[in-house]
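Database export, one record per block. Field names are fixed; values are copied verbatim from the stored entry.
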Amino acid sequence: MTEEARVAACRAFLAQLKTLHDQAGSPTMSELQKLSSGARDDGHRRRPLARSTTHDILRGRRKGVPSWPWVASFVTACHAAAEQTGLPTETMGTLMDWHARWCAARADQSAVDGEPSAAAADDKPPLPAEDVGQPDEHAQRMLEVYGRTGVRLMKDCPFDVKVGVSLAVTALLRGHAQEGVQQLTEAAQAGHVDALELLSHPRRHQMAADYAYRCGRGYQHADRVDVAMFFYRMAADPGGHPEAAYQLALIHQDKGEGWSAAYWFRIAAARGHHLATAAFNGISEQLSHAHPGESWMLPADMVDSAQPPPPFLTGDPPAPLM
């Protein structure tokens, strides 16, 4: 079997898993994790489904066919989800049905890899094993690419195409083009117009910054200011979007975070925002009268930033903008 055939067989099996998830009523990753935890009626323990692992498998981000213990736990959890909401389970397949499908997919994979097929040794489904957890290096990579806010959005809305595009934009602006293009490609294949335009736009970075700014506005209107600040920051620096920097400064000002407001007003002014210069000079005047012994901590919303903190956030305040 060729490599292309192996990939096709793996994708076909993953498509079957996605169909099963749909038949179960599309339970969230958290619901699947909860349903897969605890003891079964026969006293054996199920394998808990880690949310990030399940999300990655269903999105096709893991190479190869998932392990049988994971598949068994996923099938069982999907059946439980369907039963809880009164959905029919007759067409969802039994564990034996799914084990046969898994054996066929695994045999196809082994044929390419040159390994002996595991199907012969697995003619009966083994009992689910304990979850070994998500590799630390994978979690660290997700944090590096998307930041804590991005990872939280990914977990909360794993199948939302719009969220996927916003995360792709985040990856692009944070300097991780490979992950960004991959997510844009998936979103474009799902019919998202902005994703398709971003893929072919000659000034992709500029368009990404504008899209991040619009994400920030949307989340701010939805009263999710913390998420809005995350996208404003991506749009402003390194995106170079002056209005995003200005809006971020206004939020900091409303929060009483003077030094941070001054920084973003200064960024916006330097990029030509006509209101930011006066705002920066005004807040600089206020801060110049602050008690000289007063200390300022790094704002919490900048912890996710891929950029180093501005010098004055760890030292002297900025000089007035001329």
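Remark 1: The first helix runs from residue 3 to 23.
Remark 2: Confidence is low (pLDDT under 50) at residues 111-135, 291-322.
End of record.
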